[in-house]
Amino acid sequence: xxxxxxxxxxxxxxxxxxxxxxxxxxxxxxxxxxxxxxxxxxxxxxxxxxxxxxxxxxxxxxxxxxxxxxxxxxxxxxxxxxxxxxxxxxxxxxxxxxxxxxxxxxxxxxxxxxxxxxxxxxxxxxxxxxxxxxxxxxxxxxxxxxxxxxxxxxxxxxxxxxxxxxxxxxxxxxxxxxxxxxxxxxxxxxxxxxxxxxxxxxxxxxxxxxxxxxxxxxxxxxxxxxxxxxxxxxxxxxxxxxxxxxxxxxxxxxxxxxxxxxxxxxxxxxxxxxxxxxxxxxxxxxxxxxxxxxxxxxxxxxxxxxxxxxxxxxxxxxxxxxxxxxxxxxxxxxxxxxxxxxxxxxxxxxxxxxxxxxxxxxxxxxxxxxxxxxxxxxxxxxxxxxxxx
Length: 389
Ligand SMILES: NC(=O)c1ccc[n+]([C@@H]2O[C@H](COP(=O)([O-])OP(=O)(O)OC[C@H]3O[C@@H](n4cnc5c(N)ncnc54)[C@H](O)[C@@H]3O)[C@@H](O)[C@H]2O)c1
Fold this sequence. Notes:
By secondary structure, the protein is of the alpha/beta class. It is about 45% helix and about 15% strand. The structure holds nicotinamide-adenine-dinucleotide. Nicotinamide-adenine-dinucleotide binds near residues 186, 189 and 265.
């Protein structure tokens, strides 16, 4: 994680977080451990609990405790234990929070407990915080890290794009070349999956409900068609829409023998599992650890990871090279809140453009890639209204 390492080195010299109490409710993974260390290096007192009991890496939690970072998390903990851990972080009275889903910051709001600011890592968390803001009840500034350009482009397109296919291949050992992949949803994540599947030799068909996105997919040289038609063509079906019941009975009924179904959307509602069970009349067989075979009479279809988010359920989620930029965003957001928090409005705020650009610049440097800068004359031309053609 070279970008985060550079941020950490600067933090160590400048101590911009000196005296801040930063509580993080994030997935307890090796990447998060690097973030905690960067914040500590900047002078912050830090504490961590898990944003999802199923993703906690116990060995990482233990290593952080050895390094003096209090961690409240255990893989597979039940909901009571999870809630107790979030409460204990709130009891610690943090100045700044980091969330992946807003559980910690929402709890502080429920308690009426003051806090200087927060940074949020995911769409679901921002939805909750924006509702709070709309009701006029948000009591601190929140930096929407999830929406920075370095997060949105690289985490979604390249992170999910690669890791969703990685999860599918780990679960099935399928050859993508020569196969037809039907992709539901051509959003930030879907575009990444489509690109990578094409690169691996698959024919990609996109199904969309948004005419602009559908047109974009067509102009990107993918086939676009209604789901009913695509159902007859696909070998592999991948949903990544954020919606529910996207692949359902009428689609299953048209699929070819051996079709494979996977979901990369957040919740396991995109493939209609109830309809699949009904159609199979309970004739379901586990054929590989993460592959269930549904016998639909004259055909069989294969469901991966029970319809759960395939890159996490069957793979390791995003590579560290992507989380590098996501967590550099979080680290710089904490610095921004520490240095400027008092002057910020109690709203959900964009990551400042300079921070986004700083992260992209550091990432380019780490890749050994140089770029040009505008000349003084070009800068003048771009800001003048009377400069002419
Ligand atoms: N697996 C991961 O690591 C990961 C990472 C980021 C986001 N996500 C999840 O992926 C989902 C999509 O995220 P996104 O950022 O790409 O969203 P997005 O809003 O950018 O794109 C979703 C697309 O799906 C389309 N869509 C909606 N309903 C549809 C339907 N019935 N049929 C076909 N297309 C439909 C929309 O028109 C839109 O273009 C969300 O659930 C998000 O939480 C997963």
